[in-house]
Amino acid sequence: MTIHLSAAIERFPIAGNFTIARGSKSEAVVVTVRLEQDGHVGHGECVPYARYGETPQSTLAAIETLAPAFAAGMSRSELQQVLPPGAARNALDCALWDLEAKRAGASVAVLAGTTLPQHIETTFTISLGTPDGMAEAAAKAAHLPLLKIKLGAPGDAERLGAVRAAAPGTRLVVDANEGWHPDDLPVLLDICAHCRVELVEQPLPANADQALTEIDHPVPICADESGHALAGLEALVGRYDAINIKLDKTGGLTEALAVAARAEALGLSIMVGCMVSTSLSMLPARLLAARARWIDLDGPLLLEQDRPDGLAYEGGMISGAASPLWGG
């Protein structure tokens, strides 16, 4: 049956600046998809990422090219064969899930055979900055249960020490965004262990992470840039202890659910992550929460303003209630 597809690029200012080892940005640029069929409308959102060769324009073009296929009634299973994992497929896949749920009069959670916890604990991200600046930000957020600290530049030991001193009772995870060198890794991991860090995300470049098989892991190490979708998942075993599943990497909820199941079978712990984006991106990822040890779905908290009917955040917790924005 005919599905009408439309898509657009949207921009959401970030509250202040968001800085990681690769640079800073002041707005979240997303591509949104709308699928309409018989009076029912499904929505999806993705974040094109330059690290993976994506731009908003190229992502929009890839989506719009499929308008004739959707007019002919393209299914989710067919979509998996037409587009590779990535941002474009994510927005389309999530919009199809939303459309299916609305047509069925059921939630996506029911259709996917999963359940949502009533409350979901999420990280809150502290951007890369000076030790004093990061300590100040951590002190303001010390009432939250879990902070994610962006590192990946000279002076990380000082940054981490300052953050821990400013938030002595808060759980910490660290994201180096490929910014550490193999020679420095043992010392930095020991410092993380001393500071009671629970997880270190992607310390080495994805194409140079073999050293992770040759050193002790006093803190569990999580793959992000090194692990995208089902293909190559087995290669992470022995290098990593966990994988960060992001729908913009897997190309949507369909493959993300498969990645989670396979990761569990391989003995990898699961982190559910996000890009800086709105609740329309968080809602599909939220369906992985019950399987995840760490949840990093704070994207809307970093924006000046979220979408209407977005997720409810309070004290580092996300409500598991249904949302009219996506998923039923």
Written overview of the protein:
With 328 residues, the chain is of the alpha/beta class. It folds into two domains: 102 residues, Enolase-like, domain 1 (2-Layer Sandwich), CATH 3.30.390.10; 201 residues, Alpha-Beta Barrel (TIM Barrel), CATH 3.20.20.120. It is 30% helix and 24% strand. The chain is built from eleven helices and 14 strands. The protein has an eight-stranded parallel sheet with strand order 5-6-7-8-9-10-11-12. A hairpin with a 2-residue loop joins strand 1 and strand 2. Helix 1 packs across helix 4 and helix 6 runs parallel beside helix 7. The chain is globular, with a radius of gyration of 19 Å. The model has no long low-confidence stretch (mean pLDDT 96).
> Mind describing the biggest β-sheet?
8 strands, parallel
The best one-word shape is globular
Number of strands: 14
| Poorly predicted parts | none
Mean pLDDT: 96
H/I helix tally: 11
Distance between the termini: 22 Å
CATH superfamily of the largest domain: Enolase-like C-terminal domain
| CATH class category of the largest domain | Alpha Beta
Helix-strand pattern: EEEHHHHHEEHEHEHEEEHHEHEEE
